[in-house]
Structure to design on (176 residues):
């Protein structure tokens, strides 16, 4: 039973950390690119097939994985540089049941930071396109949508920062 639970938790963590932000980014890109928009349109119809599903899955993962080093540089190296995992504590990972606890912290804390951080980057093309389209329809609508997107982006960036800080705190406490 433990292996099935680990597989489910780990798989879910990887999906939210890489696939979902990648899908957001890919969809945002499709609003700027006619060919990508046609692919998404086909995917939502009966003309879709397993090949198109796999293409969308792989492209979303590629976008999510491409965003990851940008997120790490921005959040972990710049914004949260005063909050780092203590590297010297890894020597304690083999003691007791710490390895399992470490994996749990990664799956239940760090993956969410990755999701929020990657999503904050992936959503930019989507937010820009929708906001520009709304401005072309109405100034008031454009301002409203822009403020709504800025509010969501602000909360997402805050969640990414707080998620990383909480991950580091739990990481350091576990491995001391």
């Amino acid at each position: 039973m433990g292996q099935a639970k680990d597989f489910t938790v780990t798989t879910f963590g990887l999906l939210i950390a890489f696939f979902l932000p990648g899908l957001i980014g890919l969809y945002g890109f499709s609003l700027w690119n006619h060919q990508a928009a046609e692919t998404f349109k086909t995917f939502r119809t009966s003309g879709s097939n397993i090949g198109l599903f796999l293409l969308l899955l792989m492209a979303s993962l590629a976008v999510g994985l491409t965003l990851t080093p940008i997120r790490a540089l921005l959040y972990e190296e710049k914004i949260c540089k005063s909050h780092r995992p203590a590297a010297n504590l890894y020597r304690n990972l083999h003691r007791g049941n710490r390895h399992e606890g470490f994996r749990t912290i990664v799956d239940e804390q760090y993956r969410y930071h990755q999701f929020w951080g990657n999503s904050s980057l992936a959503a930019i093309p989507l937010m820009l396109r929708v906001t520009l389209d709304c401005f072309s329809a109405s100034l008031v609508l454009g301002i409203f949508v822009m403020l709504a997107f800025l509010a969501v982006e602000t909360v997402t960036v805050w969640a990414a920062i707080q998620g990383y800080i909480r991950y580091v705190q739990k990481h350091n406490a576990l491995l001391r």
